[in-house]
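Thread title: Can someone regenerate the structure for this chain?

I was given the following input by a collaborator and told the matching structure tokens would be attached. They weren't. Posting the sequence so someone can regenerate them.
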Amino acid sequence: TDGRTDGRTDGRTDGRMDGWMDGWMDGWIDGWMDEWMDGWVSAECSKLPDGAFWKLDPTENSMRMHLKLKRNYAGSQHKEASLSQRPQNLGSPRAAGKPPRPESDENLMMALSGKLVPQKPEDMELKLEDFEDNEVADDWMMLDPEKNPQDTANVHEVITFATACEMINLKGVIKGRLIVTANGVHFFVDQSGLDPKKPSTLSSKNDSWPAGSVLSVQKRRYLLRRNAIEIFTADRRNYLFNIIGKGHMKKLLKALETPFPGNCVESLKLTPSDLLKSGGKTQQWQRREISNFEYLMYLNTIAGRSFNDLTQYPVFPWVLKDYESATIDLTDPNVYRDLSLPMGALNPKRLEQLLERYHAMGDDDRTPAFLYGSHYSSLGVVLHFMLRVEPYATHFLENLQSGRWDV
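Best answer:
Regenerated them for you:
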């Protein structure tokens, strides 16, 4: 009996000692690694010049999060945007009784314009035959090597299709040419189309994406027209292009089938609802195999939302309604908002005021009656929340407020 007891006791003691030693070693190693990393980061940062600027890196992780910053060599403190740095303009033009700057009002109207037109679910489907043609006419856009010497000079391959386009990103709108070959896609910047008033666009460069570097190509809208595509690459970046030229969108979608395998361009033939059914993400979410964040980002992606276009920035639903209690019970249905109603209809008093204004507007061919005068997702709203992060701060100054801080 004593032998058996001693054996069990020694075994338990040895197990506890081993567990304690493992825990202590793990903790020591983790602590040493953290201390070493902190020291290394501090040492590396000390090598940077004083006043180094940073901006958000466009590289995404598998959940489409932007988690990295990178050096912003063109960064500045934007002192010229402060009224205190412009003694000749002490005070706001509006406050001084001066008319607003036309370009400011024009940019603001472009950012906030849009009409809320009731649509049935079937009307919102993105179908290939529904893609609108851009009516801009330009002989330079047509695919003819004799008329497009710049295409054949830039790309030493057989060109399948070429068209004028605009690359849309946080730098702004960059005009250029999109050329499809048997081996990939190329984008060439139209240097003559760069705006010197927007320095952030002047650093734009040509780019190419071989067939093996592209994960998928998806249809997008731009300025409410279904004339855009977004290319997702293996280096976790994405590029949004607005296609210019009558009938060029349909031709481009067909041409993209040559360099890219079927799984890359499969989404071009499917509607968002088809992608949702075939993707299996809903079942993964229901089985808790992916998080709420991953699922919502997937819905944003197939719905056409993009980080490149601030008017279509990804959105998340406002789920809770109890922001007054010290603690909430997530199993209580009363803490959640009514998801069958839009945000503007949750407050009965506000909804009554909106309906009253709606009926008072009457029928006007030029300005149809509307409930909400602005959209929950717009350029101004996104930049308001992202103002302290580059390149959003520069975008705010160059494209919305004409170089002035005006939040």
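The beta strands are 54-56, 69-71, 159-169, 172-181, 184-189, 207-210, 214-222, 225-233, 238-243.
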